[in-house]
Design brief:
Layout lengths: L1 H19 L3 H13 L1 H32 L1 H24 L9 H5 L7 H13 L3 H13 L6 H25 L3 H30 L5
Helix pairs in contact: 1-8, 1-9, 2-3, 2-6, 2-8, 3-6, 3-7, 3-8, 4-7, 4-9, 7-9
Length: 213
């Protein structure tokens, strides 16, 4: 159990950078809160969390199949993961300050009726249709999680990650729609990007030295 706790803590230490980094999911939640209200933004947050669980599920199942069937295929995936981690690390290091803005058109719109299903689907689709997610999760799972970790434990990791993502965006829905909070997050985004860039590159180097079990 101790080894599993170390894996979970390591996963969450890396995943925390992905959670707080400014991106499309954050912009969508903020816009939902401004245009359709806090309730719809929270529902959208659950959609994003569900999509993360979708990514985690096929990553765990697919990675397990690759490891069990072919070391060659595992190495292909591994080096794709290395390339992606180094790429996003360099990109993050080069990134400047991120301005979190919402268009005047969105701010001027009167709140429109939006069903809970539509709000959920918006969040789910935005995250689930992101092709970069598969490489991200393959990279961190193949780097940190042992091939011998039981499938149920791996899905437990995914559930914790999805829950933390939902809680983060629920917090965004509640607190970060004010101009002061958006400005503070924008100021911090440059250092978030630089720190995460170093972490992702280090992960890529570590993954490059790993071998299939």
């Amino acid at each position: 159990m101790h080894a599993y706790m170390i894996e979970l803590i390591s996963l969450m230490a890396i995943f925390s950078f992905a959670i707080v980094s400014p991106g499309a999911d954050l912009a969508m939640v903020i816009r939902q809160a401004l245009v359709h209200g806090r309730r719809q933004a929270i529902i959208t947050s659950f959609g994003i969390g569900a999509a993360l669980m979708f990514h985690v599920s096929y990553t765990i199942l697919g990675l397990g199949l690759i490891i069990s069937q072919s070391v060659y295929l595992f190495n292909i995936v591994k080096w794709l993961g290395v390339a992606y981690l180094v790429y996003i690390g360099i990109k993050a290091l080069k990134a400047g300050r991120t301005e979190i803005t919402v268009s005047a058109e969105a701010q001027d719109d009167a709140p429109k009726a939006q069903s809970a299903l539509k709000a959920f689907t918006l969040g789910f689709a935005a995250n689930a249709l992101n092709p970069k997610a598969v490489f991200f999760f393959l990279s961190i799972f193949s780097t940190i999680v042992s091939a011998h970790t039981p499938m149920a434990i791996k899905f437990g990791y995914g559930t914790v990650m999805a829950s933390c993502l939902i809680l983060w965006f629920v917090g965004v829905s509640a607190f970060m729609t004010t101009p002061r909070m958006r400005a503070a997050f924008s100021r911090a985004s440059k250092w978030i990007d630089r720190t995460s860039g170093v972490v992702f590159i280090a992960l890529g180097i570590k993954l490059a030295t790993e071998k299939a079990a």
